[in-house]
Design goal:
By secondary structure, the chain is an alpha/beta fold. The chain has eight helices and 13 strands. Helix content is 25%, strand content 20%. It is globular.
Length: 303
């Protein structure tokens, strides 16, 4: 059974939309420390952007973005992951009143212990802040793009949508069949000299093959950017002709990507006249696996 979906086509282009650069740079001052600790030891450094509206109005639940950094920001100083790479991502979080959680690792995002710790911190954010559990999104760049695949594979029911960017390949345990119902928009550049564009193509191909869907017809000698949108799955793949490895600034300045991302939720609307316990018995699970946009209508006005 596939996840129901609908799109506000007036806002979401099949391509990218115009890019809008951030008007300010990401700064540690924008973030509160948000680390997993055990006694005097820090198990997972992290920073959390808390939108001011969440403080002034703690009764309104707000979306959260999980950002996984690349290899160049690895470490334990709890600072390197907050840099110019996320200027545009933070700008959009501020504009929408969304939380932005940026953990840091020095062990990579393929380590299961690290992934479990990230998930534990997401639970903590839900417990301590007005985060909407049905609107948690994940994105990452390069090594963190691979981490995005790995988080989806390990905690599929956690996320409403995902945006892996110039991603390294996921863990060998990655099961493409589990991604069939997951809203994903993957980005890469054809001329990436650090992580081959084929790594993203391969994952997209595996997902489509698992679903029995036709594969993209990639141009042999592209003259422009290539955009694939599945006609049946909520799966998109944008391959820039140029851009090298560092395309995240462009991706995170793409309005259409955010309109698509924030249109998704894990919430399943309750049918009229059917009680919650009956829905749970019918679905057979406590947390619904099927995700759908919250409504087949124009997204809410940006905050």
């Amino acid at each position: 059974m596939r996840r129901a979906r609908c799109f506000w086509l007036g806002a979401i282009s099949l391509l990218h939309g115009a890019a809008a650069p951030a008007s300010f740079a990401a700064s540690l001052a924008d973030f509160a420390p948000f680390s997993l600790t055990s006694g005097a030891s820090t198990l997972l450094p992290g920073r959390l952007y808390i939108p001011p509206a969440a403080v002034s109005d703690p009764t309104t639940q707000r979306p959260m973005i999980l950002f996984l950094h690349g290899a160049g920001e690895s470490g334990t100083n709890n600072a390197a992951q907050v840099n110019g790479n996320i200027d545009n991502l933070l700008a959009e979080a501020k504009r929408r009143g969304a939380f932005l959680y940026a953990p840091q690792t020095n062990a990579g995002w393929s380590n299961m212990t690290v992934l479990n710790r990230v998930d534990a911190m997401l639970d903590r954010a839900l417990a301590e802040h007005p985060v909407d559990a049905s609107r948690v999104y994940v994105t990452g760049i390069s090594m963190g793009g691979g981490g995005t695949w790995n988080m989806l594979a390990r905690f599929e029911d956690r996320f409403a949508a995902a945006v892996p960017i110039c991603a390294v390949s996921p863990n060998t345990s990655f099961n493409a069949a589990d991604m069939i119902d997951m809203p994903i928009w993957a980005f890469h550049a054809r001329d990436d000299g650090v992580v081959s564009y084929t790594s993203t193509r391969n994952v997209v191909t595996r997902i489509l093959s698992a679903a029995g869907e036709p594969l993209p017809s990639y141009p042999v000698r592209p003259q422009s950017d290539f955009a694939f949108v599945s006609s049946t799955l909520d799966l998109r793949h944008t391959e820039y002709r140029l851009g090298g490895h560092g395309i995240w600034g462009r991706v995170y300045a793409t309005p259409a990507m955010y309109e698509w991302l924030f249109s998704h939720t894990t919430a399943v609307p309750e049918p009229a006249g059917v009680s919650a316990w009956l829905i749970a018995a019918w679905v057979g699970v406590r947390r619904p696996k099927r995700r759908a946009p919250s409504a087949c209508a124009k997204p809410a006005t940006r905050r």
